[in-house]
Amino acid sequence: MPPRKLPPSKEASAAMPPFDGLPLDRIHVPHTPAQVDHAWSELGRARFVGFDTESKPTFTAGEVSGGPDVVQFATSTEAWVFQLRVAACIDVVRQVLESPDVVKVGFGLHSDHAQLRARLGVQVRPVLDLDAVFSRQGYPRTIGVRGALAVSMGRGFAKSKRTTMSNWSAATLDARQLLYAANDAYAALKVFEALALPAAELAQFLDARRR
After folding, report:
1. How do strand 27-28 and strand 79-83 relate by DSSP bridges?
2. How far is CA 10 from CA 18, 109, 152, 164, in A?
3. Read out DSSP for 88-151?
4. Phi-psi bin for 62: left (phi > 0), alpha (psi -120 to 50), beta?
5. Mean of the per-residue pLDDT values for the chain?
6. Among 200, 80, 187, which Cα is nearest to 130's?
7. Which pLDDT score, from 0 to 100, does residue 60 have?
8. What b/e readout covers 17-29, taking b as 16+ CB neighbours within 10 angstroms?
9. Do residues 118 and 67 lie in contact, with contact meaning Cβ atoms separated by under 8 Å?
């Protein structure tokens, strides 16, 4: 087992050049059947997509989350933020999550799987949890997107707690929510691309998730 490593501190990563995320004009929020069809035409042909979810926070002890409320996917050039309150989005989200040809790449995906099973009745596959990749390299099991960007790309990544804890079930998401959600997924994909995992190593991680 490799020696334990630590990613740069939050302060050190904040001093790095900022990660170049997607701008708003590259972030899509499908609502109409035509917009949903276009999303599938792009996502369905991607071999790897960045993936994450967002849920309205709970504040009362014992309160059960009804999330996820938002599911987001990113390619190397664009992102789609699907609001599950929009009926037209449900089927395409299921299609992407269950497509055997599209690898969903993200961080800390265990809780996402459980929530998506409860909300949509889907088994997400295939997936690549980057936390597991960095853990095998000797980093903490939950390195997260900030630490991973610092290690793999030398870039800082700021996350706003105010946005994290905002109302993700709202009928209309504001610009800061869209940028936050889309770039969580996009950053995961860019970290994956920067790692350039050999095919054999990549296959091991995908096979481990299927077992």
Report:
1. parallel
2. 13, 22, 15, 17
3. HHHHHHHHHHH-TTSEEEESS-HHHHHHHHHHH-----SEEEHHHHHHHTTS-TT-HHHHHHHH
4. left
5. 91
6. 187
7. 62
8. eebebbeeeebbb
9. no
- The closest alpha carbon to 157, from 4, 6, 10, 3, belongs to 10
When pLDDT is cut at 50, 70 and 90, the band that residue 211 belongs to is very low
Both tokens assigned to 74: 């990113």
d(CA 184, CA 175): 14
Q: What is the pTM of this model?
A: 0.92
Among candidates 131, 98, 122, 117, which has minimal Cα distance to 208?
Answer: 131
The span from the CA of 209 to the CA of 7, in Å, is 25
Cα 187 → chain centroid:
8
Please tell me whether the peptide bond between 2 and the residue prior to it is cis, using omega within 30 degrees of 0.
Answer: no
Edge-to-edge order in the sheet of strand 103-106: 27-28, 79-83, 70-74, 48-54, 103-106, 127-129
CA atoms of 144 and 42, how far apart (whole Å): 27
Q: How far apart are CA 135 and CA 158, in angstroms?
A: 22
Whether 37 shows a pLDDT value over 90: the answer reads: yes
